[in-house]
Amino acid sequence: MSFKIYTDGSCHGNPGPGGWAFIVVANDEVVKEKSGSMEKTTNNQMELSAAIQGLFYFNEHVESKEVELFTDSKYVIDGINSWIHGWKKNNWRTSTKKPVKNEELWRTLDELNSKLTVNWIWVKGHSGDIFNDKVDLLANYATLGDCIL
What we know:
alpha/beta, Nucleotidyltransferase, domain 5, 4 helices, 5 strands, 30% strand, EC 3.1.26.4, magnesium
């Protein structure tokens, strides 16, 4: 069985109220969708939270440990595929010796990533990918829900 996770984060203001969402798909059928929100956050934090929540769910509820994770966030893709190796080598410092922003989220994502075989795939946002468009709506709805409260 082929598994995919679609993730997205949203934020109104930066910082501001934000939302995250993920959808787990097996053989083109939705297995699980989930979203959440935070009152004061950033878009990057929500993008990371979406990936973390999706991988956490997958690790806890799906027997397979192989998954493709789709995100429209270059921040997440570049961070997990490239930057994180240098950060860990430099004790969670950037190449300019500054602390890594969102370090705790990155550490959590790295831990989950190490438990699974994840193929990280960037997908262009708002490009007609049905699951990416749906997860975008879920993240935005979660963000707006926080604004209404």
